[in-house]
Amino acid sequence: MPISLSGLVDKIKPSFTLQMTARAAALRAKGVDVINFGVGEPDFNTPSHIIKAGQKAIEDGYTKYTPGSGMLELKKAIQTKVKNVTGTLYDTSQIIVSNGGKQSLSVACQALFEEGDKVIIFSPYWVSFPEFVRLSGAEPLLVDTLPSEQFEPNFDDLNKKIDPSIKGVIINSPSNPTGGVWSDQAILKMLEISKENNWIVISDETYEELVYDRDFTAIDSLNSIGAEVLTIRSMSKTYAMTGWRIGYTIADEVIVKAMSKIQGQTTSCPNAIGQKASVAALLGDPQPVLDMKKKFQERRQVMFDSLNALEGVTCDMPGGAFYMFPDFSSYLNRETKEGKILRDTFDLSDYILDTASVVTVAGDGFGAKGYLRLSFATSSEIIKAGIKRIEESLKELK
Ligand code: PLP
């Protein structure tokens, strides 16, 4: 008898960035020398004082369930960290810890949105945003951005699309996939429009520590008008802790309670060992984070120079994260030696993988035709070698 799955499965798309990672791993297993610009995580290991705190947590018996919304000790560490970044002292009742920022976002959407609601997402968008919204029953409403302005919102497009069924907006600065960092003015404008229309603003600040040309501005520190804001942060990128699975949300107590109810019936609580390690990360020596940031900044320059030296490719300098989002549209509709026409960036990315063994991620998957996403979370030598290989492949196109 055929297995019958729920409609939800068809409603959402699989994470294609995870699929690209799996493809790179499969090629490597076959012995292919793959250069992977598809990675969405730091190549550094978790700093040693954090690892030690994790080991100690296991030895001390932190191997059991914790409170569903996270340990009080971690919430207090978050409170301290957030006070330092935003100047605001939140009550621990306004904090919920989850198994990664991904769970925070997913649970937040389920707690806030439902069928009939629309949620604004700026395009290019991180692949999971529309899916979190769809999982909640609501519909994503895509709004354009301005590539030459760090992919800030195109407010003309936004104003045209305003309608009463919009319930919220998701913003993400620094951004995955573009690396764009919005100006304070753009964020302020979003806060004003959101307040006027009674939208909740979900601010994904996963890449908060990776801002290179200025200080990071947390949305909270700009919200003197009192728009409804929910902030999500993660241990993953800042502290090179992707596998520990800890992220957190700061929001109104009512929302935190609702999220705790949903989370309690899905994963019971966040990972206990990861929570203890996160306390050490948030309160411990900040130097390893600063060292990683310095390395990323050097690599950003190397990738920027290498990409802009490619014929027909243009790329603005991203202000944050570890992604470049160059425009490769001049290579679309070109023909390979085998006579295949590269219709979109999925074709182009496949062609680069097949001929140069370099993993890139197709911009079409992020809602951006003509662009590729390349991660610079790898060494400068590998960046140079990988872009050289891409150059050779592109030269073969007719
Ligand atoms: N938000 C953005 C923009 C991301 O790029 C990611 C991970 O790639 C996340 C959230 C979630 O990260 P995690 O679940 O590891 O905290």
| Uncertain parts | none
Radius of gyration: 21 Å
Order of helices and strands: HHEHHEHEHEEHEHEEEHHHEHEEEH
The hetero compounds bound to this protein are: pyridoxal-5'-phosphate
Distance between the first and last residues' Cα: 50 Å
Please list the strands of the largest sheet in the order they lie side by side: 2-9-8-7-6-3-4-5
Q: How much strand?
A: 5-15%
Count of DSSP H/I helices: 13
Number of domains: 2
**Which topology of the largest domain does CATH recognise?**
Aspartate Aminotransferase, domain 2
CATH top-level class of the largest domain = Alpha Beta
Mean pLDDT across all amino acids: 95
- The share of residues in helices is 40-55%
CATH architecture of the largest domain: 3-Layer(aba) Sandwich
Account of the 3D structure:
- With 398 residues, the chain is of the alpha/beta class.
- It folds into two domains: 7-32 and 288-395, Aspartate Aminotransferase, domain 1 (Alpha-Beta Complex); 48-283, Type I PLP-dependent aspartate aminotransferase-like (Major domain) (Aspartate Aminotransferase, domain 2).
- Helix content is 40%, strand content 13%.
- The protein is built from 13 helices and 13 strands.
- It has helices at residues 7-11, 16-29, 48-59, 72-86, 101-112, 128-135, 155-161, 184-197, 253-264, 272-283, 287-308, 345-356, 380-395; strands spanning 35-36, 95-98, 118-123, 139-146, 152-153, 166-171, 200-204, 229-234, 247-250, 323-324, 358-359, 361-362, 372-375.
- The strands form three sheets. It has an eight-stranded mixed sheet with strand order 2-9-8-7-6-3-4-5, sandwiched between helices. A three-stranded antiparallel sheet has the order 10-13-12. It has a two-stranded parallel ribbon with strand order 1-11.
- Strand 6, helix 8 and strand 7 (200-204) form a beta-alpha-beta unit.
- Helix 5 packs across helix 9 (253-264).
- The chain is globular, with a radius of gyration of 21 Å.
- The chain starts with 6 loop residues before the first helix and ends with a helix.
- 48% of the residues are buried.
- The mean pLDDT is 95.
- The site of pyridoxal-5'-phosphate (PLP) has 13 residues, from helix 5.
